Amino acid sequence: MGGVRARIRAVFGDAGVTGWMHAVDIDSGAEVADGAETPVSTASVHKLCLAVTVQRLADEGRLDPEEQVESLPGDRTPGPTGLAMLSGPVRMSVRDLVAMALTVSDNTAADLLFDRVGLAAVNDAMRAVGLRRTVAVQTMRDLFATIDEDSGGDEARLRSDPALLARLRVLDPARANRSTPRDMTRLLTALWRDEACSPDRARELRAVLGLQVWPHRLAAGFPYDDVRVYGKTGTLPTLRHEVGVVEYPDGGRYAVAVFTRAARTAARQPAADAAIGTAARLAVRALRAH
Q1: Structural contact between residues 187 and 49, judged by C-beta atoms closer than 8 angstroms
Q2: Rounded distance, CA 210 to CA 249, Å?
Q3: Average pLDDT of the residues of the chain
């Protein structure tokens, strides 16, 4: 697999990013790894850990997925999608909050769930699934508060001041929600094998991950009508991530985690986004030829 690793590194280099990735055949265990044990700041990828936790708590009878939660306009976590866009009060079920957190990466929905279950429960659930280097230390609300503190309230400077950007705690895996590419593929593998939670709840989560609206990263590497891509993105200044599963019509299924950090500070980085899909395609192609 050394040849495919070299090609993947070239893809990252051409896109101007540093990349870490892991891909594994869910059924055979064959893998492609490059920096798979590297701790990374997960950004919104951690919403997948939160969603699995909710399902596990529901399995244990400690949480009702139909429980109604209220979201008020003055108490919403910032974000470009989901409940933060709305002007009036909203009530929805825990189940629907999970769907919003995964499909459109809704920060408010995620925080309502974090408030309901607690960070400790998320960490306990990840350890129970076998993840040893995946830790949640902050809600999405906390994440944005630290960005505001570290930028002195001038977040626009983050796109023009590399020195300021380098001081952001949310980019430091030692001080932010974190994981590794291998831990994330382990979580996805457990979810696809019905080991992360009960089969019915695992099936429900898989279906929701298949409805994610962002096609420009992992899915861009597999533009085929008969290949299904399930995923969860994560984005912060300079960070572009996605973890997910690629399913082929012949039954092949591959868990992939790609994390990147760009040298450029621009908010829009289509080359970095595309590199995630290209790296995933190269890795999955190598696994299918293995």
Answers
A1: yes
A2: 15
A3: 95
